[in-house]
Design brief:
mainly alpha; MetI-like fold; 11 helices; membrane; ABC transporter permease
């Protein structure tokens, strides 16, 4: 008699799963197909022909490179800020007890729970009130609000699974705070921080709504794509750039998944 693990799924469930996957990923496949079409002005199906000329066109357009460079810089700095603040918040909430701890935890995760347009309006109002001109740094501040949450969620979950006796043993053996962090805490939470950083980078790289309210006249890559769709010049170029966005955001998410799938195994947890 076969075990439950070995039993085959019902046919209806397989069909429903396949239909759900097609619904989610078929639009992505269409983006890839239209990146090779010979039709410049419309999305004609089937494509009248296939060509790779649009990759060269996209490569030689300076506006694409400017938007890409800005997106990478914003995502990298926002992720760095999130790694520091998110880790410190996670350590404080998970490793210590103080009045209002749960309230602070709620306030930390609130920005990602709110609709992006609410966050964007709030930030724009705050910048206007403080007379802060919109610039590269206002985009980073906007992105950091939700990037911190991603890192915090990964770090706090790992902190709570880590045995407090490891830190106590390190201190008893004469290690100072920095040594304890470097040799005990960081090896245990390192994969969680790396995964959180990758997810934060991916979210920042393709953010549109908050960027719209905080960027001023600057264009990140998603904003550039939106402008190109509204006022198209060479539609296939937009699809080529969309392929880049898909790859840049997909690879960190896959890496984060593989890094955290065995996250319940904490060094020294069984000692």
């Amino acid at each position: 008699m076969r075990s439950d693990r070995q039993q085959s799924a019902p046919l209806g469930l397989k069909i429903a799963a396949a239909a759900g996957l097609l619904f989610l990923h078929l639009p992505l496949l269409l983006i890839f197909v239209y990146a090779f079409t010979t039709e410049e002005k419309s999305y004609q199906w089937p494509p009248p022909g296939l060509t790779t000329q649009w990759f060269a066109v996209a490569w030689n357009r300076p506006d694409v490179w400017q938007a890409l460079t800005l997106s990478v810089q914003v995502a990298a700095i926002s992720t760095a800020i999130a790694l520091v603040l998110g880790t410190l918040c996670a350590a404080a909430v998970s490793q210590t007890k103080f009045f209002g701890r749960e309230t602070i935890s709620l306030l930390v995760i609130l920005p990602i729970a709110l609709p992006g347009i609410i966050t964007g309006i709030a930030l724009r109002s705050a910048f206007n009130l403080a007379e802060i001109p919109f610039s590269f740094w206002t985009i980073i501040l906007g992105h950091a609000t939700f990037c911190v949450v991603v890192v915090y969620n990964n770090a706090v979950a790992r902190f709570r699974r880590m045995s407090g006796s490891l830190i106590e043993a390190s201190m008893d053996l004469g290690a100072d705070g920095f040594q304890t962090f470097r040799h005990v805490i960081l090896p245990n939470i390192g994969t969680a921080l790396l995964a959180g950083g990758m997810l934060a980078f991916a979210l920042s790289f393709d953010e549109v709504i908050v960027t719209t309210f905080t960027a001023g006249q600057q264009q990140t890559l998603p904003i550039w794509m939106l402008e190109e769709l509204v006022r198209p010049r060479q539609r296939p170029v937009t699809n080529v750039v969309a392929m880049v966005v898909v790859l840049v955001t997909l690879l960190p998410i896959l890496a984060a998944y593989y890094l955290t799938r065995d996250g319940d195994q904490i060094a020294g947890g069984g000692k």
